Amino acid sequence: MSGGVDSAVAAARIAEAGHDVTGVHLALSANPRSYRTGARGCCTLEDVRDARRAADVIGIPFYVWDMAERFHHDVVEDFVSEYAAGRTPNPCLRCNEKIKFEAVLDRALALGFDAVATGHHARLENGVLRRSVDPGKDQSYVLGVLTREQLAHAMFPLGDSTKEQVRAEAARRGLTVADKPDSHDICFIADGDTRAFLAERLGTRPGPIVDALTGEVLGEHDGAYGFTVGQRKGLRLGRPAPDGRPRYVLSIEPATNTVTVGPRSALEVTSIIAERPIWNGPIDEPRGPLTCSVQLRAHGEVYGCRARVTDGLLRIDLDRPATGVAPGQAAVLYDGDVVLGSGTIRSAS
Questions:
Q1: Residues within the annotated binding site?
Q2: What is the pLDDT of residues 196-213, one digit of tens each?
Q3: Is 95 among the catalytic positions?
Q4: Catalytic site residue from 42, 43, 92, 187
Q5: What does the pLDDT average to over 264-292?
Q6: CB 3.0–4.6 Å: which of 42, 144, 299, 328 could bond 2 by disulfide?
């Protein structure tokens, strides 16, 4: 129970259905005051109180589990090291994978519980992960990294409802979080300034910003970790491209600390290589090319594609070009609204 409306209604639904439910809030920081406040995160002091009040209204036991050390190692340190390596991680996806459905699930099973239930907007039918009926709130993408074993011990009670229906139900049940704003920001970056957060941990690392078309050095940056593929704002080049069009980050090379920029058209890719493929859907690893669709960012576009596994790598050929494909993000494969599997993007061309 994060302290938000979704997990509160999820808990209420499964308790009403007759399950033996215990509410658990995760303490993810040794100093919760350093995390976001004002209902912007999911692990602040306010969130603890909101979660406890919701459990009291539902009438279920409530505990706080200290996961701060594990969260710091598996999510925060991973976030920093991924940026240092020129990749763009998704910390919410990593939290689902390493904390909620690994650390928490392991402890829950050891204590005799059967499953971990969350307020994610996704459906789970006969062990198969599907998109939520609310496309605007669908979170199957950030759950696409879970294994079949993890999904076998998961419950997502909200997948058949829209967010508006969940809020209305929360109000009917007397849950004070009915109108609480959704969290959108990275919970462990208190002021939302990702670049400053990384600079504090990685230090200043000046390097060149290079034009991909001419090879000209256009400017200097304080750290390549402050950029991501597809970024347009914040380049601070001081002069436009010859054609007057904006430049975008095309690549980040941590070895030389070089950020390469160019026109939007140079961002287009049709081929993606992803590592660590996971097949968690109704089919096993395909022996040949698989016609399906792929989502490359949370709430991003969906592209028709053909996917195959070669030498342990997932190779994806898109039916049309995609832009802003960043190494470190997940590529989640779908058959309609059914999740087939996923991989972590290594490169794109």
A1: 26, 119
A2: 999 999 999 999 999 999
A3: yes
A4: 187
A5: 95
A6: 42
Amino acid at 166: V
Q: Which helix (H) or strand (E) holds 290?
A: strand 290-295
Residue 87, both tokens:
């990749």
Q: What percent of the chain has pLDDT over 90?
A: 83
CA distance linking residue 344 with residue 76, whole number of Å? 18
List the catalytic residue out of 43, 95, 292, 305.
95
3-state secondary structure 203-236: CCCCEEEEECCCCCEEEEECCHHHCCCCCCCCCC
Q: Are 335 and 281 in contact (CB under 8 A)?
A: yes
Binding-site members for ATP are 26, 119
Which CA distances in Å does 206 have to 82, 131, 220?
18, 43, 7
pLDDT in tens, 230-269: 999 888 887 778 888 899 999 999 989 999 999 999 999 9
What pTM, to 2 d.p., does this model score? 0.92
In sequence order, the 6+-apart residues with CB closer than 8 A to the CB of 50 are 3, 4, 8, 176, 177, 180
Ranges 46-50, 187-191, 218-222, 321-325: which has the least confidence: 187-191
User: Which residue in 175, 234, 223 sits closest to 200, CA to CA?
Assistant: 223
Q: Please state which of the ranges 90-94, 113-117, 186-190 shows the lowest mean pLDDT.
A: 186-190
* Rounded (5°) CA angle 322-132-40: 80
User: Counting beta carbons within 10 angstroms of the beta carbon of residue 325, is it exposed (0 to 12), middle (13 to 18) or buried (19 or more)?
Assistant: buried
How many CB atoms within 10 Å of residue 208?
Answer: 16
pLDDT at position 199: 92
Q: Answer yes or no: 92 catalytic.
A: no
Residue 178 is given by DSSP the state G
For tokens 């050390």, name the residue.
69
- Going 36 to 42 to 45 to 47, the CA torsion angle's sign is positive
Q: Which residues have a Cβ under 8 Å from the Cβ of 218 and sit 6 or more positions away? A: 209, 210, 211, 237, 239, 247, 261
Domains of the chain: 5-179 (3.40.50.620), 204-266 (2.30.30.280), 268-348 (2.40.30.10)
